Amino acid sequence: MARIDRDIFGRGFTFRDGQRTVHYRPKLLGHGYVGDDGSVAEEDVFGCGYTLKDSRGQKRERFHSTLFGAGLRGDRGTFVERDLFGYGASVKRGAR
Question: pTM here?
């Protein structure tokens, strides 16, 4: 299971998955985040989800909000569940 932790001031977040750690910071212009590995998390126009792209711009997974806002569900079966107090999230990968 992976983990997403928000930065102290809430401007960015860090994705941790075993040995892999990627820090995302907000884009200068527009909505979304840029990772220190070159990957991008683009926010949807209406703010209902994100599209995760690798450093070459290829789509990896599309996430949309769940019905009652408990988290995000990806089109590859990944579920991002927000922590109780909203400081981070747990990432559970599903079978494709």
Answer: 0.76
Strand ranges, E, within the chain = 2-6, 13-17, 20-26, 33-35, 40-43, 49-53, 59-65, 71-74, 79-82, 88-92
Contact assessment for residue 74 and residue 91, using Cβ atoms and an 8 Å cutoff: no
Contact 73, 79 (CB under 8 A): yes
Cα–Cα distance, 37 to 46 (Å, whole number): 26
Distance CA 48, CA 70 (A): 13
3-state secondary structure of 51: strand
Q: Cα(43)–Cα(85) distance, rounded to whole angstroms? A: 22
pLDDT in tens, 23-77: 999 988 767 899 999 999 888 877 678 888 999 988 898 888 887 767 888 898 8
